[in-house]
Amino acid sequence: MEILLYPHEILLKKAEKVTEFNEELKNIVNQMFETMYKRGGLGLAGNQVGILKRIVVMDLNSGKENQGKEQIILINPEIVEMEGEQINQEGCLSLPGLYKKVKRAAYVKVKAQNLEGEEFTIEGENLLARAFQHEIDHLNGIVFIDRLSPIQKRLALQRYKKLKRDFERKIGKR
């Protein structure tokens, strides 16, 4: 799978609810994990690989010795509870090389479905809470720089234009 780079139009669209829980969905999820690990990300949303479905894969151990042992799969996730506040650095596979401090909730409770369509809830604090919010934002057509002030976003986009050119040259695109 190819990770779409900002400002690709699919990244700015709201993803649709998954209604079929089948082998195709499992294959998509497996390919998303493979793509995420290849690029060293902690999470990946369907939009980022051109699939406008509400699918998120995550592994906070990506790139570490125990990679793959704590995979999180969220189908049709929605945040049902948020508390506290944290401000930390964020990056994104769709904005390679760009890192900015973003304000997020410190605790998040998410309702989602698994690969069989069964509902469950999952809670996260700190980095996990941040990752949940970041990936669910993607499903809603929001990228992390949209959470910055207008001035910060403009400066980030100026920096990103150069980073994107360098990244595309590195991977052989024009």
UniProtKB/TrEMBL annotation:
What Pfam families does the entry give?
A: Pep_deformylase
Instruction: Tell me the keywords, alphabetical order.
Output: Hydrolase, Iron, Metal-binding, Protein biosynthesis
| Residues in the signal sequence | none
Q: Which cofactor does it need?
A: Fe(2+)
- Write down the superkingdom of origin: Bacteria
The entry's Fe cation-binding residues are 92, 134, 138
Enzyme class, first EC level, given as a word: hydrolase
Q: Which InterPro entries match?
A: Peptide_deformylase (IPR023635), Peptide_deformylase_sf (IPR036821)
| Catalytic site | 135
Paste the cofactor note.
Binds 1 Fe(2+) ion.
GO biological process annotation, one example: translation
Stated EC number for the protein is 3.5.1.88
CDD domains listed in its UniProt record: Pep_deformylase (cd00487)
Catalyzed reactions: N-terminal N-formyl-L-methionyl-[peptide] + H2O = N-terminal L-methionyl-[peptide] + formate
**Gene Ontology MF annotations:** metal ion binding; peptide deformylase activity
Q: What does the record give as the function of this protein?
A: Removes the formyl group from the N-terminal Met of newly synthesized proteins. Requires at least a dipeptide for an efficient rate of reaction. N-terminal L-methionine is a prerequisite for activity but the enzyme has broad specificity at other positions.
What family does this belong to?
Belongs to the polypeptide deformylase family.
Which HAMAP family does this UniProt record tie to the protein?
A: Pep_deformylase
List the NCBIfam families: pept_deformyl, PRK00150.1-3
Its recorded name reads Peptide deformylase
Q: Provide the species name.
A: Desulfurobacterium atlanticum
